Amino acid sequence: MTRVFERIGHVFLRFFEETGLWFRMLWRTILWAFRPPFDGAEWLKQMVRLGVDSIPVVVLTAMFTGMVLALQTYNGFARVHAENFVGSVVALAMLRELSPVLVGLMVTGRVGSSMAAEIGTMRVTEQLDALQALATDPVQYLFVPRVIAGLIMLPLLVILGDALGIYGGYLVGVKLMGTNPIIYEQNTFQYLGMKDIWSGVIKAAFFGLILTLTGCVRGYYTTGGAEGVGRSTTNAVVSASLIILLSDFFLTKILF
What is the distance between the alpha carbons of residues 133 and 103, in angstroms, rounded to a whole number? Predict the structure, then answer.
């Protein structure tokens, strides 16, 4: 019984330790973000890596999510003769919830893992120590460009996902199910407001911060050689995904 309580205590201590490390690195990243020199080329490189290179994944994820949502909603609404409101449900769901969360999770799996692996490899090969020996802070050199790329590019990817999800719903509702296109378009945008758009963009910015910083932190504190890099990569994806899902609830509560 004593061992059980010891393990539970160890889990809680580990949780609070990692939370403290995460916020410590967040604070250091904020401080270094406003200090020169500013490496614009590296910032643009990370924006392309996180944003432009993730477009194919976002296109497939968002469009098929909108199509599946429209298909399921249409079949359900047809039972109560409310097929004309399919467009409204698809648009609201994509803007408020599905696009930010799904895009955040997909980019976490694609980019967050690679950031953890890259920085973790630099740690086990002592490249981070070499940076410090050359009077270069690893947080400024590695963290800041990636976090800024996440803050800027993920909202843009989510906006793209919103448009594609709504269009995917239109294809299913109008082309496949035969809904009147004029009524579908009117109902799609009739109940939308700027708050619905901005809430998704704000969520996307938070998710971009979470996935980039988590990936960087996991990589920064890697130990154990090549095996440790694998653990850090896995932990980065799992941790960032869980934080995104948990923070989504609280952001929704605050924004609505």
Answer: 38
Are the CB atoms for 121 and 196 separated by under 8 Å? no
Q: Both tokens of residue 175?
A: 């082309």
> Which of helix, strand or coil describes residue 177?
coil
Q: Rg of the Cα trace of the chain?
A: 21
Backbone torsions φ then ψ of 192, nearest 5 degrees: -90, 145
For residues 16-34, one letter each, b for 16 or more C-beta atoms within 10 angstroms of the residue's C-beta and e for the rest, the string is eebeeebeebbebbeebbe
Mean pLDDT value across residues 84-98: 89
Q: pTM for this structure?
A: 0.91
Dihedral sign (CA 60, 158, 145, 210): negative
Residue with tokens 């899902």: 245
**109-168 pLDDT, tens digit each:** 999 899 999 999 998 888 888 888 888 888 888 999 999 999 999 999 999 999 999 999
Please enumerate in sequence order all residues whose Cβ is within 8 A of that of 244, keeping only pairs 6 or more positions apart, or say none: 101, 104, 105, 108, 207, 210, 211
Q: Which helix (H) or strand (E) holds 60?
A: helix 55-77
